[in-house]
Amino acid sequence: MAKLEPMEKRVDYLLRQCSEHLANLRRIQRDNKINKMRADNLQKDKDANRAELSKNVGLKEKLEKLCRELQKDNNKLKVSRQTGRQAGSAQGNIKHQDKYTHTQRMWC
Q: Is 93 within a domain?
């Protein structure tokens, strides 16, 4: 009987160790499952952010292209206005001279 008692104590000890290890394993599995879900959610967020970033980059490029076209058009308009003013002022000078000579002829 004396020999059985140390054996029972050993068995009890091993059973406690096994139950502790089993509880630890279940806790680790639960934590692993939670961490896996977090990783999946983070990957989804990362993919969504990358898609949004590429969309924003595309829109930015489009806007920059439109801005460059608008600047070109504005520069063309400036140049055409300046040439129009120069031509208009030359024509205005001619018209003014015509009126001036016409009025001088009337008075003379």
A: yes
The predicted-structure confidence for 44-94, as pLDDT tens digits, reads as follows: 999 999 999 999 999 999 999 999 999 999 999 999 888 877 766 555 555
CA distances from 16 to 6, 10, 22, 30, 64 (A): 15, 10, 10, 21, 70
Single-letter code of the amino acid located at 96: H
d(CA 29, CA 37): 12
Using alpha carbons, select from 51, 37, 40 the residue that is nearest to residue 29.
37
Domain extent at residue 75:
54-108
Can you say whether the dihedral through the CA atoms of 79, 85, 90, 95 is positive or negative?
positive
Q: How far apart are CA 52 and CA 59, in angstroms?
A: 10
16-29 pLDDT per residue, tens = 999 999 999 999 99
* Domain assignment of residue 13, yes or no: no
In a domain, 87, yes or no: yes
pLDDT band, very low/low/confident/very high, at 96 (cuts 50, 70, 90): low
